[in-house]
Design a protein that fits this description.
alpha/beta; Rossmann fold; 5-stranded parallel β-sheet
Length: 269
Amino acid sequence: MRSLEVSQRVMNAAAATALLAGLVLALPARAETSAPTCNAPFDLIRLTNPLSHVAHKIAAGEAITVVAIGSSSTSGAGASSSAASYPSRLAVELQQHFPRLSVTVLNSGVAGEEVPDMLQRFDSAIVAVKPDLVLWQLGTNSVIRGHKLAGHDALILAGLTKIRSVGADVVLIDPQFAPKVIAKPEAEDMVTLISAAAKKENVDLFRRFEMMRHWRDVDHIGFETFVSPDGLHMNDWSYACMARGLGDAIAEAAQRPILSATAASHIIP
């Protein structure tokens, strides 16, 4: 009987040792599959111009309405749900920045659209809503379809004129840095064209292309982490990271005039 008890204790100890070893081995594997830290230097995502209209709303304590217009990467293709799209995640980020204000982010993304298609919706999606801020994501579909870029600058100008007619601030968002986009020779040209249009018209640009390139080239994050299996669309991680960066950039640019005015009041007698 005693020998049976000893044998049982040995078996229990061996089982416990095996279980502990399994747990120890499992820990590195779990750490390896965890999502990387969302990272983007602020000088990369900072908006050049202050968002004066949003700033006035913040100073007055009034509700803020944002319209996100674009194609599939605005509507949320590649996300696990609509709640994981960048506009939905941005609403959460902005509410955290401005907890005392009512912040609404309207998702007006339609998959497959190019700039001319979007312009046809501006009256209903933007003018009728009278938003305080418009986030205009553009360029990707023209690139992946190999369409000529000639004339895009005039179309962008037409869109910006329409947005300005309602007094809204505007931020352009360029294409995503993804395998199916960068495989096209027009990709860099489109990014340059949008940047030049933003500079010429003195509007803000959120450099999504450079932010995502930073993830791969500087942070050494593989495409499989921030691009969907289709090689084109973003995923939950990258939409959330984009929304965090965009939220930080909007909050800083919207409070920049207020901070400047406050500083001036301390200097002027």
